[in-house]
Design a protein that fits this description.
- This protein has helices at about 1-15, 30-45; strands at about 50-60, 65-75, 80-85, 85-90, 95-100, 105-110, 130-140, 145-155, 160-170, 175-180, 185-195, 215-220.
- The protein is mainly beta and about 220 residues long.
- The protein has a single domain (about 1-220), classed as outer membrane lipoprotein receptor (LolB), chain A (Clam).
- Strands 7-8-9-10-11-1-2-3-4-5-6-12 form a 12-stranded mixed beta sheet, with helices on one face.
- Strand 10 (about 175-180) and strand 11 form a beta hairpin.
- The two termini are about 25 Å apart.
């Protein structure tokens, strides 16, 4: 399940800002969708920090749930920490620690900023570029909120997924869920539960301290 959380981060991290092409239709981006995405990106960049809860659900082709896991995400600048049952990921902006609680094992690697490898911030900002086409779909009420749906399709048809659907809170300008449609038939749904911004988060939150985990096995991949 952790692999799929990271897959969503990797998916989002390959998105960067770009000017939309004029007009709508096949091979062209939707300027109305760009306005929504630009607003989401601009809003998120104003946040000093973010604390969010989320669920990651796996669905089959028929949309039937195959499994689900809850977690939390904390971010401040390029620093982040992802916590799931049994596993934590820490990043202080330079180094990434992936800790497996059951095995009491941590893998250490460097964050490759040039490749935009694992950056949860990208789930909320800069998630569209020339490698994706996007269009604004329906708008509807969900739990008293007006939600906007945006569909992303990769221009590179060798990608393991063929479509991504974003649901965006129109008023708050936040992404509330991301559904990734894989060619294998599975769907991975990342849904935000609570979202708190501006909280004070100590820098130590984003650093793995081996002293707090007696007997931990360290695998240094740097």
């Amino acid at each position: 399940m952790l692999r799929h959380v990271l897959s969503l981060f990797l998916l989002a991290s390959c998105f960067s800002e770009v000017a939309a092409q004029a007009g709508k239709g096949l091979g062209q981006n939707d300027p109305d969708a760009k306005k929504v995405l630009d607003a989401v990106s601009a809003r998120f960049k104003t946040y000093k920090s973010v604390k969010a809860s989320f669920t990651l659900t796996v669905e089959n082709t028929a949309g039937k749930e195959q499994g689900s896991k809850s977690g939390t995400l904390q971010m401040k600048g390029i620093k982040y920490r992802v916590s799931l049952d049994g596993q934590d990921i820490y990043c202080d902006g330079k180094t990434i620690w992936t800790y497996d609680k059951g095995a009491n094992e941590v893998q250490i690697s460097l964050l490759d900023k040039s490749s935009g490898s694992i950056t949860p911030q990208k789930l909320f900002t800069d998630f569209y570029d020339k490698d994706f086409l996007y269009k604004l779909n329906e708008e509807k009420k969900i739990a008293a909120k007006t939600m906007q749906s945006i569909e992303l399709t990769p221009t590179d048809k060798t990608k393991p997924f063929f479509k991504v659907i974003l649901w965006i809170d129109k008023a708050a300008k936040n992404i509330m869920s991301t559904r990734v449609y894989e060619k294998s038939g599975n769907r991975y749904v990342y849904a935000v539960g609570t979202l708190k911004t501006g909280a004070e988060i100590p820098d130590a939150t984003f650093v793995f301290d081996p002293k707090k985990f007696p007997g931990v096995e360290v695998i240094d991949l740097r």
